[in-house]
Amino acid sequence: MTRILIVEDDPDVATALRVLLTRAGYEVVAAADGREGLRRLFADGPDLMLLDIGLPGLDGWQVLERTRDMTDLPVLLLTARGAESDRVRGLRAGADDYLPKPFGNDELLARVEALLRRAAPARWAGAAHDDALRLVPERRAALWHGEEVRLSDIEYRLLQLLVRNRGRVVTTDQLLDQVWDDPQGIGRDRVKFAVLRLRRKLQQAAGEGEGDPIEAVRGMGYRYRGETGG
């Protein structure tokens, strides 16, 4: 049965959505805030997520960002904000569709059906990228040679971007653009020091006998080369 995750803090809206989708034949799981939504996302592996933007604590924008760290499953944003700038922001951040409140039941079901019809089976991050490294997106961490390395949000995004481009140089400008939420005014030295902290954490976790998996390419940027041996 197709599973849908609802992340919505308004209990009346959440209940109405659960009833509507259950009657339409879907299995429904729900979360009332962003952190619970991320936990349910990872634990339940839904086929689609309905995500409210105005969540307490960890808001919908942050949930969307972290969701895209883990999976490419369809995300339909639900929000009282109807401004074009918010719609554009949501789509650029990785949402698949956008539905302002209030909305009709028939329109919601039609959009859900369309997203599910177009979507391929969701891919999930976290599998081993090589024998030495495994990303742990739900904890913003990595397992390096079996040792857990706790990372800041910036360090996690740096490592993830480098791993996705394994063997290819990622330039400093690309790191600035894709890792920092607001790259304006962030100097290139900030990238260098963030990468140094990340490399130090990996080396400390693995111990003296293991090589550095991240290579600095002078004048260009950085490259993830994976396990290198001593």
Automatic annotation (TrEMBL):
Keyword Transcription: yes
Database matches in Gene3D superfamilies: 3.40.50.2300, 6.10.250.690, Winged helix-like DNA-binding domain superfamily/Winged helix DNA-binding domain
Origin species: Streptomyces noboritoensis
Sequence positions bearing 4-aspartylphosphate: D52
The entry's DNA-binding region: 124-226
Identification of the protein by name: Response regulator transcription factor
Domain Response regulatory: 3-116
PANTHER family: REGULATOR OF RPOS, TWO-COMPONENT RESPONSE REGULATOR ORR33
